[in-house]
Amino acid sequence: MKKALIIGAAGFVGSYLIDHIQKNCIWSITVTKMEHERISQTGVGIRDLDILDYSQVAALLKDVRPDYIFHLAAQSSVELSWQNPGMTVDVNIKGSLNVLNGIFELDYKPRILLIGSGEEYGRVKESEIPIIEDNAVRPGNLYAVTKVCQNMIGSIYAQAYGMQIMMVRAFNHIGPNQTPQFVVSDFCKQIAEIENGSQEPVVRVGNLGARRDFTDVRDIVRAYVLLIEKGVPGELYNVGSGQAVSIREILDKIIQFSDTPVSVEIDPAKMRPVDVHVIEADITKLKKCTGWFPVIPLETTLEETLDYWRRELLK
Ligand code: A2R
User: CA-based, 20 to 30 A from 110: which of 11, 28, 98, 197?
Assistant: First the structure.
């Protein structure tokens, strides 16, 4: 039986990845979390791990000896990367390097998926849409810089040491259980709060003109599992829907799922210092390699995320 290790499994993506593997793969699963975090799923081995502590990383890898490693642990918020650049650099670059160095020390070569971001492409020109993997990267924020760096290190390690590392640039992923620091979750939470009377009927928004490529997190984790089995070491794959949608369209769709009248107000605090107008993935390479394509409609994800917040606010 193959052994999968998910590093940083207590976050948004981790719980969905655990569910997907449990339902679809005959693998044993070990997951890691930070000491302060909780993982409620059963049937998995749960270990505490701070990826900034190399000795912990090396010991865990030697003990678990995984065949497949999904490296999800990250400081994943663009907003927080402006507020705490040092921590973002530490976790996303030094932490990833610790993981790769620990794997390098093993006496066999597991397959590894490094998760980067569509944000890496940054200031994309209109003529470059949809974006292929070979496009120039012009990151527009510190989070994106750290993910470019992580993926470059992955590529170098794959080339130099023959490690079986696949790199991903994941575009915006959304779904129930995402923290409200991400736009879709933020809007759904606000609408649910307006519905239950705890917020005045005004949705506060940032840049509505930006266009992003949104995919349901359950489609995303399905792509990750396919890539860890079928991806070519040293290669980088976009994972997204291949379809950019404006933040305004997203907001309008969410508002339509509610009977409560709302108005929309720009909140300067929600405008990011540098924003990129349009990000849309070309997913041809991923499709060719794995046969994957997204199946969950955007409307379904938005409605389920709104319902999630309605339930959360009842607690
Ligand atoms: O920051 P926390 O306490 O929420 O913990 C996050 C964890 N993490 C760490 N794990 C081990 N050692 C560290 N030094 C460390 N610092 C942070 O990684 C969190 O539990 C997990 C990442 O989960 P999320 O922030 O919810 O990200 P998500 O949406 O699951 O994305 C997974 C990957 C990341 O590489 C993103 O950059 C990419 O997909 O889009």
Answer: 11
